[in-house]
Amino acid sequence: MPDITLYTVPQCADCEAIKRLLQREGAAFTERNVRGDPQALAEMQRRADVRIAPVTIIGDEVVYGPFSDQRPRILAALSGRA
């Protein structure tokens, strides 16, 4: 399985939904809180070219936006169909 990084902010419903999805799929991931960690924010901006969490990076696949937009792309990337 590819490396997965999830960039989040506190009290974000979309961030929590993505975490639950990844856990339900059995995907190990690293969570980075961009609000409390300037280095994580800079890394997210460099890797994804966006400034708003949540951002999910699965291998080379960069997914961002609300949970409803990310869900199908995350599932495709996890199944190798990305």
UniProtKB/TrEMBL annotation:
Superkingdom per UniProt: Bacteria
| Location of the Glutaredoxin domain | 4-63
Q: Which Pfam families match?
A: Glutaredoxin
Please give the name of this protein: NrdH-redoxin
From the broadest rank down, the organism's phylogenetic lineage runs: Bacteria, Thermotogati, Deinococcota, Deinococci, Deinococcales
